[in-house]
Amino acid sequence: MNIEHILPEDIEKRSFEIIEQELNGRYIPPMEKPIVKRVIHTTADFDYLDNLFFSENAVEKAIEILKKGAVIVTDTNMAKSGINKNALKKLKCRVECFMADADVAEAAKAKGITRASASVDKAALIQEPIIYAVGNAPTALIRLDELIKQNVIKPELIIGVPVGFVNVVQSKEVIMNGSIPYIVAKGRKGGSNVAAAICNALLYMIIR
After folding, report:
1. How many whole angstroms from its chain centre is CA 54?
2. 3-state DSSP: the chain helix, strand, coil percent, rounded to 5?
3. Residue 191, exposed/middle/buried by CB under 10 A (0-12, 13-18, 19+)?
4. I need a surface site. Which of 55, 88, 105, 132 has the fewest CB within 10 A?
């Protein structure tokens, strides 16, 4: 067994070199490649080469809005924690997650809906441009679609990568058939770590 002796600060660089080698020259559109590679780096799962889908010019639109200062809203505090705060600060952006807010819990209970759905309702009150990153709750994507159709909320980008089995595939299809730019992981795979990785890839494309 050959152990690679690598300095801690070089581990990420070496990981991306290995990913590039294992791509075997496969073509990925240049604007999408940093995102795909970072998701693979986060998950060690090359299936994302085939199940990560981008609407037309989604990356360019996301970069444009982040440069102007946007709010990233996530459906989990895990995703919120995983998004690079220094990068956000440099771009005068911020990240929010309303899942643990008392008013969201109360609204969810009163209406008989999930906290993820109630969080979307609260996000609709934000005045700044929004990128909504969903890594866990398909009900957040479904509620987003409902409010978009009602002209209550209009995110600049939806990152739809919830993981699981119940309504996960369907909720992603809803977003892909909608009117808002998207980055979606088709199928059952995804997760809060994937949502954060996509957000970070977008941020790094601007500041690095």
Report:
1. 12
2. 50, 10, 35
3. buried
4. 105
CA distance 141 to 203: 22
DSSP 128-168: S-EEEEESS-HHHHHHHHHHHHTTS---SEEEE---SSSSH
Mean of pLDDT values over 143-147 = 97
> Most distant CA pair in the chain: distance in Å?
59
Separation between Cα atoms, residue 16 and residue 48, nearest integer Å: 15
Phi, psi of 181 (to 5 degrees): -55, 145
Tell whether the model's pLDDT for residue 1 goes beyond 80: no
Q: What is the reported pLDDT for 9?
A: 86
Q: How many helices (H) and strands (E) does the chain have?
A: 11, 6
Q: Is the pTM of this model over 0.90?
A: yes
Whether the per-residue pLDDT at 7 is higher than 80: the answer is: yes
- Beta strands across the sheet bearing 157-160: 52-54, 182-185, 157-160, 130-134, 71-74, 94-97
Q: Which band of pLDDT confidence, cut at 50, 70 and 90, is reported for residue 10?
A: confident
- CB-based contact 161:43 (threshold 8 Å): no
Where in the sequence numbering do the catalytic residues fall?
41
Q: What residue type is 125 in one-letter code?
A: L
Does pLDDT of 162 surpass 80? yes
